[in-house]
Specification:
75% helix; 0% strand
Length: 102
């Protein structure tokens, strides 16, 4: 494992992949170049925006809550509940309920 920082008992396949991807400068630069071509605006936004942990936590909590509601809607649909009943229980618009597929 040429100059690798991996443990001695690392499987040869992983060590070889590590050597190719992370020790070959040309490949590493190409991977970064491809990444930035696709995600450049997101990276710039992350670097230039003021990051606030409290706002981030609120967003994470909201996303988690939305995921739970989505799972609940799918479960209700799988149980045969009518879309209008699901909308009343979840307080989601009926149009949103209809968009969600079980």
């Amino acid at each position: 494992m040429s100059g690798s920082n991996l443990p001695a008992d690392t499987p040869v396949e992983i060590a070889t992949l590590e050597d190719v991807l992370f020790n070959d400068r040309r490949i590493r630069e190409e991977i970064l170049s491809d990444f930035f071509k696709v995600h450049s605006s997101e990276v710039i936004n992350m670097l230039t925006a003021e990051w606030d942990i409290n706002t981030a936590r609120k967003v994470w909590e909201q996303e988690a809550q939305e995921e739970k509601i989505l799972e609940m809607v799918i479960g209700m649909k799988n149980e045969g509940m009518a879309d209008d009943a699901i909308a009343r229980v979840t307080r989601l618009p009926i149009e949103r309920i209809r968009e969600i597929h079980s």
